[in-house]
Write a structure and sequence with these properties.
Layout: E1 2-9, H1 14-23, E2 28-31, H2 38-43, H3 45-62, H4 78-101, E3 106-109, E4 113-117, E5 120-123, E6 126-135, E7 139-141, H5 157-160, E8 169-173, H6 177-189, E9 192-196, H7 208-221, E10 223-225, E11 229-236, E12 239-245, E13 251-256, E14 258-261, E15 265-267, H8 269-272, E16 300-302, H9 313-328, E17 342-344, E18 350-354, H10 357-362, E19 367-373, H11 378-383, E20 388-394, E21 400-406, H12 410-423, H13 428-431, H14 442-449
Parallel strand pairs: 1-2, 1-6, 2-3, 6-16, 8-9, 8-14, 9-10
Antiparallel strand pairs: 4-5, 5-6, 7-15, 11-12, 12-13, 17-18, 18-21, 19-20, 20-21
Helix pairs in contact: 1-9, 3-4, 3-6
């Protein structure tokens, strides 16, 4: 049996803990069956946004005519694009591993581990124990039990980001962020995209008004099937066919060259057998943690997507600082999740922070609303692209409760509101600031000015 001061499971955000502990002379075991860098670097944020930028460029070329510019796309070399992106992230991952292997305080186990007892794991035929254990093992694509799915070839986001041939027709099952971003990527580069969603609108976790706006805009670009029940899938030659039942009860066949399952993600806690160490999980399989990210077992912490709290890379980056301070530096500070925003890099972009109007209604929280459309600003008119900023303030003062944006650069514009919420929490931080004219950020200030 080998003993370590620290065991880290997962080489994404968990690398911050490895670096901290090893840098202070502790003996660290890192368990990671995949490549270094985690989902964000290898299968998520970084490669997807590099690819999506190409889609944004393609969309700009296609829309050049409305600015009096004649332009067209002659061809798309998807293989070259994917090769460049894949080589970039693969090199980064390789460099991370090489650096770790040079550290005498770090032992890397490039295989899957599982708990076999209290703070005890079995990995690579060895039994190891750790004084402190950190579970940062993330999630994996979740494919629901659809009739026929076991005999049909399909992609998840992992494979889609490495696809080197542009499908003529892509069928996507799912209507969330992953579905929307990948639909934008493949659709803008030339694929005909079908999106099959069981609900009445796409990106349903967003503020309802924003989700409805997005669904309308996306339906102009892609073939969107709403309120669709999946009856089954089958293979016909080189074609994959998805049979759906529409809201009116009629069945319809949707055929494509490729099928992408974008139906959510599930916790990897089951793979680790965490229950064998006494670590409690929720009904959804997420590891339960307290306000300090401690699990039900003393000396074991968990963070990131595997705990399901605002499952975003920047949330994990935020959490890891608390974990390091609490686990190693003697602090006991609960994680502050206030004003953590999110963004979807589709077209149009969507971003938000704080409460949605639906959430405020559900809790009977008094509020006021402000809205402003891009087209009514100087830059919005120049862009010839519309969007909306929606602001939610407290009823009796100017406390910012939430802000939701749909339109160009929403992922950047939202940061003004995030900073204001974190700094003062008041709308006056934005309304009293002199905004550069005619920068697009004027739309934020005007949305706040427009509050009832």
């Amino acid at each position: 049996m080998k003993k370590f001061d620290v065991i880290v499971i997962g080489a994404g955000t968990g690398l911050e803990i490895v670096s901290f502990a090893a840098g202070r002379g502790m003996k660290v075991a890192l368990i990671e069956e995949g490549v270094m860098g985690g989902t964000c670097l290898n299968r998520g944020c970084i490669p997807s946004k590099m690819l999506i930028h190409a889609a944004d460029v393609a969309e700009t070329i296609k829309s050049a005519g409305k600015f009096g510019i004649s332009a067209k796309i002659d061809s798309v070399d998807l293989a070259s694009l994917v090769k460049r992106v894949s080589e970039t992230v693969d090199d980064d991952s390789k460099n991370i591993e090489e650096s770790l292997r040079e550290d005498n305080n770090v032992t890397i186990y490039k295989t899957r581990g599982k708990f076999v007892g209290d703070k005890t794991l079995e990995v690579a035929g060895e039994t190891i124990v750790g004084d402190k254990i950190f579970i940062v093992a993330g999630t994996r694509p979740d494919v629901p039990p659809i009739s026929g799915i076991e005999s049909v070839p399909y992609l998840t986001s992992t494979e889609a980001l490495r696809l080197t041939t542009l499908p003529e027709t892509l069928v996507i099952i799912g209507g969330g962020y992953i579905a929307a971003e990948l639909a934008h990527f493949f659709g803008s580069l030339g694929s005909t995209v079908h999106i099959i969603n069981r609900g009445p609108k796409l990106v349903a976790n967003e503020d309802s008004e924003i989700a409805e706006w997005f669904t309308g805009e996306f339906s102009k670009k892609h073939k969107v099937h709403l309120n669709a029940e999946i009856v089954g899938v089958r293979k016909e030659g080189s074609t994959v066919v998805v049979q759906i039942k529409n809201a009116d009860g009629k069945t319809e066949d949707i055929a494509g060259n490729k099928l992408l399952m974008a139906t959510g993600r599930k916790s990897n806690a089951d793979i680790l057998n965490v229950s064998d160490s006494g670590i409690k999980v929720s009904e959804r399989g997420l590891i339960k943690v307290n306000d300090f990210l401690e699990t039900s077992v003393k000396g074991v912490w968990a963070l990131g997507d595997i705990v399901g709290i605002l499952s975003l890379k920047h949330t994990a980056n935020h959490q890891v600082g608390y974990v390091i301070r609490n686990a190693f530096l003697g602090e006991h500070e609960p994680v502050d999740y206030s004003a953590i925003g999110h963004a979807m890099f589709s077209s149009p972009q969507v971003a938000g922070v704080g409460k949605t109007e639906d959430e405020l209604k559900k809790t009977n929280t008094p509020y006021r609303v402000g809205k402003y459309e891009y087209k009514n600003t100087g830059m919005g008119g120049a862009l010839q692209e519309n969007g909306l900023v929606k602001v939610l303030l407290a009823k009796d003062d100017d406390t910012i409760l939430g802000c939701h944006i749909i339109g160009k650069d929403a992922s950047t514009l939202i940061h003004e509101v995030i900073v204001a919420m974190k700094a003062t929490g008041k709308a006056s931080a934005i309304t009293n600031a002199v905004h550069i004219h005619p920068a697009l950020s004027e739309v934020i200030q005007r949305a706040f000015y427009s509050v009832e």
